[in-house]
Amino acid sequence: MINIRSFLVFAFDLAAVLIAWIGAFVLRFNLEWPRAFHAEIAYGALILMAVQLAACRWAGLYRGMWSFASLPDLRRLIRAVGISVIAVLALAAFDGTWLLIPRSIVLLYPLLLIMIMGGGRIAWRLWKESRLLPVSDAERKPVVIVGAGTAGAMLLRELARSPDWKVVAMVDDDRHKRGLELSGCRVEGATIDLPAILRRHGARHVILAMPSASAEALQAVTRLATEAGAALFTIPGLAELMSGRVAINMMRPVKIEDLLGRESVRIDNDNVRAMLTGKRILVTGAGGSIGSELCRQLARFEPACVVLLESSEFALYMIEQWFGEHRPEVPIVRLAGDVKDESRMTQVFAEHRPQVVFHAAAYKHVPLMEVGNAWQAVRNNVAGTLTVARAARDAEAERFVLISTDKAVNPTNVMGATKRIAEMVCEVLQNGPGTTRFHVVRFGNVLGSTGSVIPKFQAQIAHGGPVTVTHPEINRYFMSIPEAAQLVLQAAAMGQGGEIFVLDMGAPVKIVDLARNMIRLSGFTEDEIRIEFTGLRPGEKLYEELLADAEETLPTPHEKLRIARSRTVPDGLYEGVLAWLAQGPQEDEAVRAGLKRWVPEYEPRG
């Protein structure tokens, strides 16, 4: 059955050849009908229509949709017309022996043909786009685009089709672009002019079209837009756009992660794959923030089995559901269990024989562990690590990876001191009998993790404030959860045993600045949502460190990983810690005294 659309396109192109051929003769003879050239016009038109159809098929001109006619279609059209030019030259070569073709026709005909064929396609696209936008400009929301580069141009073209948005202006800090127009839209100024431009056009929305902009630039635009009362959106990053997973017009509100300037992580997939593919893997704390993301990252590398160990029934259920929905092909084992339960750990390792163990189970909330729960922190973070690590050694696991924290450096709180002892326990086991390699990965706060400051601020803003910050100068290192999980895998793959890997956490962020940015991103000002300073909490540091004073770092092949050369583990630590744990529950002050014995740099802060 003949496709009506294809038939109409063929008919249009045939008509275009006929009109261009006759038009060339009419123009050649000053808009008079060339009576002496009837044979040339008739025979030439028949030959050229046949040639042109074949040329259009060869050039792929009929693969394009007129509704989306673009530069690639123009290139195909020019290739097709080029074949017609060759045909006209061949006709002209006869020069009186058969047909007499004036030389000027060789130039006039292809020019007219390109104008008619190209113009028809462009006119159709314009008509279709006008039909796709039944709403008037008055009904479309005015928006200002920040960034007049490639991403801005792509976004502008996409939004021209949108029934919801009308781009009224663009801004860019490149002074050479100011005053110029992009697809009919004027670059009216620099980003500093954004508030005035928004007021002039009555716009309440801003879209950032700067996928590679620095965190400082994003923060500046965010401040200007929110102070002007405009909602702020951004487009996907360059990596997402290049991968084809998302389109340029898939906008989303700017998130706090965008303003922290964390770059995407590059990991050595080959080495990580060699470590994980076909292996049995155990993740403790598999339902927690880091543990669950580790599981999601591990699933990409085709493990033989992932054993999910979690003490929280609900958290275990949630990560199980994720695998069922997103990675049903990955075999999983769902185990409820407590890392402090030695008999349960022995059973798990004997039954499943994991080859790679990621120990993410821990108590991590500093103030909660500081008062009334100090001994529980010791049991979970020290005894739990010791139990799982020994079980891994006895089961001859290939690798054991401890997820540690920057709070283990010169600790001022119970949680940090217990994690430092856990690190030292792993160092002792690395130097003992057995073939298991023990690694430690130490990093700071992860964005959006359970109990972290960002979910807390979000809840406070949602309730109308105030947003509580402990001290105006307090700062912290931040990293996204996927970034942290990927670097843990990278560290495990390159480790030889006994290392403490330190992740590049970038520059520290002032918590008060974080609070201000979150208030702005939520569409409020500090007059509407105030910030309240509450004072440092028990055990809380003003500034966090990633390395102790006496430690040095060594570079690794990965730019975001370094190896810390930590203090020597005190003699007798292993036996001493075992004896200490055997004493049973202790009061908070006794716990602090015990921690001070094994971690001399521990300085409790009330």
UniProtKB/TrEMBL annotation:
Coiled coil residues, start to end: none
Keyword Transmembrane helix carried by entry: yes
Membrane spanning residue stretches: 7-29, 41-59, 80-101
One family name in Pfam for this protein: Polysacc_synt_2
Annotated ranges, domain Polysaccharide biosynthesis protein CapD-like: 281-564
Entry-linked SUPFAM superfamilies: NAD(P)-binding Rossmann-fold domains
InterPro entries the record matches: NAD(P)-bd_dom_sf, Polysac_CapD-like, Polysaccharide_Synthase-Rel
Keyword Membrane assigned: yes
Keyword list, A-Z: Membrane, Transmembrane, Transmembrane helix
UniProt family annotation: Belongs to the polysaccharide synthase family.
Protein name: Nucleoside-diphosphate sugar epimerase/dehydratase
Lineage of producing organism: Bacteria, Pseudomonadati, Pseudomonadota, Betaproteobacteria, Burkholderiales
